[in-house]
Write a structure and sequence with these properties.
Radius of gyration: 19 Å
Bound molecules: zinc ion
Number of strands: 2
Helix content: 10-25%
Order of helices and strands: HHEEH
Mean pLDDT: 84
Strand order of the largest sheet: 1-2
Low-confidence stretches: 101-110
Distance between the termini: 35 Å
Shape: elongated
Length: 119
Amino acid sequence: MTKLCADCNQVITNRENSARFCWGCSKLRPKKNGQAQAAYQVNKAVRNGILPSASTLICVDCGKPAQCYEHRDYNKPLEVEPTCKSCNTRRGPAIPLNQETNDTSSTNSSPPERLTNIS
Ligand SMILES: [Zn+2]
Ligand SMILES: [Zn+2]
């Protein structure tokens, strides 16, 4: 089972099964996993008073003062937990944004398109 990097088409080695890019490309790539959008949503929520500022909270993992909000799923940008920087790093990346759904207003009632009858 070999997987090819979605960017450079080289075989991906020594990466988790879900990896879509080789190490080199994943380092070079801008973060397109939804992290930036999720962070933006959180910042906006803090500004609007929906979420308290992370610095007023404590890290849910170690009890030290929190420094940021940590995502477990970038598809749920406001489902966050306050953590310190080191716990945030230790937790690793969240579930990436599902980019297959290119329709932002999709309810799950859209009929499947039939593309098989092209003659
Ligand atoms: Zn690559
Ligand atoms: Zn911590």
